[in-house]
Amino acid sequence: MRVIVVKDKMEMGKRAAALIAEDMRKKRGPYVLGLATGSTPIPLYQELIRLHKSEGLDFSTCISFNLDEYVGLSGDHDQSYRYFMNTQLFDHVNINKKNTFVPDGMAKDVEAFCEQYEAMIDDVGGIDYQVLGIGANGHIGFNEPGSSLGSLTRIKTLTERTISDNARFFARKEDVPTLAITMGIGTIFKARKAVLLANGAGKADAIKASLEGPVASFCPASALQLHRWATYVVDEAAAAKLTLNHET
Ligand code: GLP
Question: Which residue, judged by its Cα, is nearest atom 5 of ligand 1?
Answer without folding.
Answer: 135
